[in-house]
Amino acid sequence: MFSCMMSVVFKNTNGWLLDACSLVNQGVQLCTSAGKAAKEKSYFKCCFKQQCFKVLTSHVNVSGTNDISIPDRLLVLQGSENDASVHFNRSKRRKRKRSEMNQGEIDSLAYHLKIRSAIAEGTKSLVDAGLSCGYLSDVKEENEPLPSQECNLAALCDMAKGLPLVADISQVQFIRPEDGCSTTHLELFTQVTESCMDCAVELTLMGQKYIIPPRCSFLLSDLTRIQPLVDYGKLFNLIVMDPPWENKSVKRSGRYGFLPSTQLKRLPIPLLAAAGCVVVTWVTNRSSHLRFVKDELYPHWGVEVLAEWFWVKVTNSGKYVFPLDSPHKKPYEVLVLGRYRGSGDDSHRSRGNTELSMEDQRVIVSVPSALHSHKPSLSDVLKPYAGADADCLELFARSLQPGWTSWGNEVIKFQHVSYYTVELTSAPTDKSIDEDVGDPTDPSPEADLPPPPPPPAPQYLV
């Protein structure tokens, strides 16, 4: 399986400092347009536009007087231990005083206080390492305009619900080196699309150009049309999901559709997970969502909760993107990690990997993408817990990863060519790049060929 090395700039007992853009770029270091004869092929390399990972200043709330200060909120929380009056009755339609907190805010603050020291200490150690090796530093450049691309994939998925599901033929369609670059014939909404190529390929899908990483597969659909992913026939050792959580901000902005928490139980995790599969869920900083994942969702699937990790977002100079104790937006998000245990009859689904224990309260620090809902890939961090040759799946994905399977109603959003800079490069010397690697129905089509040499690792690793 295609492997990427390495997006980890620094690692210690507290966690990892990631170069999120590096992992994106490593999958597209060599790219071509499919459908041309070998002697006519042009090769180029792509880089995700650097301005997307330039976060130069912290976002500080300047409203000031209307916010409850952290000391005041601490007093309210401390008083709640002995005073039930702070647990307000939500049925009362009265305007809250500025100094009052509802139950959700109290729960969120209590959780923040519980994890604060782990986040503060872990972030400091990782940021200090990033500053020492020069990866993090003050950047004086002005922010460049962000790329913009109107994404109508979700709307297309909704329209595609009227299409009949593919029956009596293979559930997989293949992107091969000899295929034409215009692939309107691909049934993107009803079958899993899989790349058989050892380099990235530029494809025209639905009239738009996208960069497809090597050896990846994807299904463009919503939850109502996820069955082709089940029929794909793979059992995965690592499943990462970033659900579109329901919240007031999303409802107001209308930036993307949300999914009620209870609908997540419909995800067919027991049909997709191998025994011992590592399951990771991104969770917003809303206490009810965190409780739901730990107390309802994972038990419903047969997943044992093992750890909570924290993604901490910092600027290019190593400062929190929001104040750590901000009463509103926090500079971190939570990941809930567990393993699929299933039933006793699932032992045959295991690949026999020795399970690596998961330490609780680890910290992952990175400069976030300035693009909305563009999460960093955690492949290099999570692979050791799932096994080096793990089959990996991302649910609710908005981009593709080399060697991974991805699903979502915007699954190729950030593969659009507008997010990349393109530079011509010389043809590769490895002939296997130019040739099909055999029968795509072979479960191990690369078995008789050496893997392509991995791209060079960043020089930041300490």
TrEMBL record:
GO MF term set: nucleic acid binding; RNA methyltransferase activity; site-specific DNA-methyltransferase (adenine-specific) activity
Region (Disordered): 428-462
Annotated Pro residues bias: 448-462
Alphabetized InterPro entries for the sequence: DNA_methylase_N6_adenine_CS, MT-A70-like
GO terms for biological process, alphabetical: methylation
GO cellular component terms, semicolon-separated: cytosol; nucleus
Source organism, top-level taxon: Eukaryota
Listed PANTHER family: N(6)-ADENINE-SPECIFIC METHYLTRANSFERASE METTL4, N6-ADENOSINE-METHYLTRANSFERASE
Protein family per UniProt: Belongs to the MT-A70-like family.
Protein name stated in the entry: Methyltransferase 4, N6-adenosine
Organism (species): Esox lucius
